[in-house]
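Two quick folds needed for the group meeting slides. Do the first one here.
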Amino acid sequence: MKSLISFFEKIGYSITSRIKRLGTATRLFFLILISSGESFKRFHLTMKEIYFTGVMSLVIIIVSAFFVGMVLGLQGYYTLQKYGSSEAIGVLVALALVRELGPVVTALLFAGRAGTAITAEIGLMKATEQLSAMEMMAVNPVGRIIAPRFWAGVIAMPILASIFSMVGILGGYVVAVIVIGVDEGAFWSQMQANVDFRYDIVNGVIKSLVFGVACTTIALFEGFDAPPTAEGVSRATTRTVVTSSLVILGLDFILTSFMLGG
């Protein structure tokens, strides 16, 4: 009987601790929004973080996008060839990248590269009591440290996703047109005729914006909430990747269902 009670106590503690963390993360999110005015007054801080989260992530985004586009072109061609529709390879590559792979893969790469760096940076600031020192000097750490990183992630994510889609289409073009020999005019004309700006491109941008908010908020919260020890910071960076990946995939399903339903 005691073991059963202990089991339910552990489950209850696990649930309540997760609800508490969710509430703390929501509170931090609204504090960021309230303190955003201070970060916009010193927009150079946000620009510095855009360089760190966006520009420094370009290499992995471009290389990954090119290979993803080439794989899509190769797989798509041999699949469409069976049905005599190999000239529609441009449409397949463009829609797959703009609707799904561009925003999703970019967000996953962003969480793995920039998200973990943000978490580690904030966690080390907390461990070395830099955030507490700012509060002692009447400087709002949320407005000075957290908010610029939040808006940098939100701004950088759609740009990175757009670059991912463009480079991926280029990779598909290289494989389909240059390597395999699909007609170049058919590749681009089919894509132009079937990719809709409102339902494909804009929806992809909306997804990347939502992913940017989610990934950056998770990374900032995990760093802000990390125990001030080396082990605590390392665990926080791991949670950032795992939580961000699960949230991205879940949000992708929800957003896709609403967009297709609309």
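Then this one, please, same format:
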Amino acid sequence: MKTPYRYNTALKEKGFTIIEGIYNNGEIAAMIAAIDRADRGKDTFRSSADLFAIRQLFKEIPALKPLVFNAYLQQLVHDFFGPGYFIVKSIYFDKPEQSNWYVAYHQDLTIAVAEKIQLEHFGPWTVKQNQYAVQPPVALLERNFTIRIHLDDTDAGNGALKVIEASHLKKVYRPETIDYAAEHETVCPVAKGGIMIMKPLLLHSSGRSTSGRRRRVIHIEFSDQALPAGLTWAEQQEI
């Protein structure tokens, strides 16, 4: 099945697109069951009253990967971006029903790498839960993309993303400089079993839960680029 042209156009022009019905209820239930069986005592698991998250998701739960990459999703990746792309980051986010956790507007400006190597045009560096991250050149980020798989119906009431349309075309765009009168802010509801494809340079945020409904999302980042001078992706896996 060839991906409809309108989805490719939206991703290019607006920085995101939403495609419903990628997974049926049985496939979603199987993913949730695999996540629920995981040992939650590891360093890559983060738990609080407002958020449960698993970093390096496919490394921690290998059984999840074939459930996520069904034939439909594999075809979509090929149709949108062609061959050569691979996974470079995978995270699971679970926002509980009464969560007050929110994320302010930001771009995804860093990549996860295996070790710290000082290179020109790579920086600043951070480390979180023993995971190095670095801001690479913008040209690298412009080729990458993210897929967010929704395991629950998601809208403004339980933390659907808000985005500034076409902000991915403005290179590094500092949130404090957003002119809301001139920009187009959009809420991105996604039904259970649907996906949102987005560019990492798209400004996006997520509000607090106000509806008493849970929001579970699998977040996957992709690239087709080798890193320079011995720098390696922390989570590189084939699709």
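Slide caption for protein two: The chain has a mean pLDDT of 92.
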